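Sanity check. The docking grid for zinc ion depends on where the pocket ends up, so I'm generating a full predicted complex first rather than guessing from homology. Inputs follow.
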Amino acid sequence: MKLIQDKLESKGLRSSQQRMKILQYLDQHRTHPTVEEIYNGLVKEMPTLSRTTIYNTLQLFLEHALISGLTISGSESRFDFETTPHSHFFCKECGVVMDVEKVDCPCENRGVISGNRIDEVHLYLKGVCKNCLTKSKGGKK
Amino acid sequence: MKLIQDKLESKGLRSSQQRMKILQYLDQHRTHPTVEEIYNGLVKEMPTLSRTTIYNTLQLFLEHALISGLTISGSESRFDFETTPHSHFFCKECGVVMDVEKVDCPCENRGVISGNRIDEVHLYLKGVCKNCLTKSKGGKK
DNA sequence: TTTCATGCTTGTAATTATTACATCTTCGTG
DNA sequence: CACGAAGATGTAATAATTACAAGCATGAAA
Ligand SMILES: [Mn+2]
Ligand SMILES: [Mn+2]
Ligand SMILES: [Zn+2]
Ligand SMILES: [Zn+2]
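Predicted complex below; grid placement will be based on this.
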């Protein structure tokens, strides 16, 4: 928890109870949670926590590059404690979002493509995860 | 228009007026339009067109792999007449979504990663486009 | 050609994710 | 302790999408 606090203060941000808890939640849940999942995970121990605080805080964290954001599942934003570039896999059966072994794309080393400045690279793989493939063996195709 | 009709019928789909217009719109607007953009583009000549029809139709097209879908801009889905694998760039200044020269990632040739079956590969690059970079020369960084 | 069934389209209502905003709280400083 | 700014909260508004019931079109069967 001290480390979390340091991380916040190293960016010049005040380490409020809410900010620390939200950042800690992301650190301890590397599942790329949504706002709703973070809310449900924290509201038990912080009954007055507001979803708006979570939105604001995540936005702030993104601006300070404390976390990273994903839009792999389409309808909702997901968040990641990890900020170093890596790739993601989304299972269309069970909805899990997981990190995959770094696929190194030539573009990541290139700052510009056709004159456009690249700030972020997102590689999203979608399909059916190992787990769901196993379960559906013999079941429905 | 005949080609559009053939394309629909080749997938065993009925070629209704709405379906043809929607598919034609995507063919003629390679800007990765949103549902709203498609609606605004077509409602003039089809005043009774419903957004629901657009949602349903795009869903159907996706299921039959007539088109492809993107979630690069976060809040809304975008659609692409092009179905062969290619990469996209999103400008955080002006919101344009454009195709970029094919970046060939090793994963595209691989059907499985860590036991997960890959059906789709999306490479999204985000940053500031050539145009916006030019405009802001001398202006704000 | 009428009849009928089925698939397609429409409009409205409901849901979900997100943002806007006014108010209340907290916390460091003097 | 008092003040002021930053932070948190709750409610209302928006935006995108889905659910659903009802109407419409089309093509095969009679
Ligand atoms: Mn990750
Ligand atoms: Mn494209
Ligand atoms: Zn799965
Ligand atoms: Zn731009």
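Relevant for the grid: Residues 51-63 of chain A form the longest helix (13 residues).
Also worth noting: Chain A has a mean pLDDT of 91.
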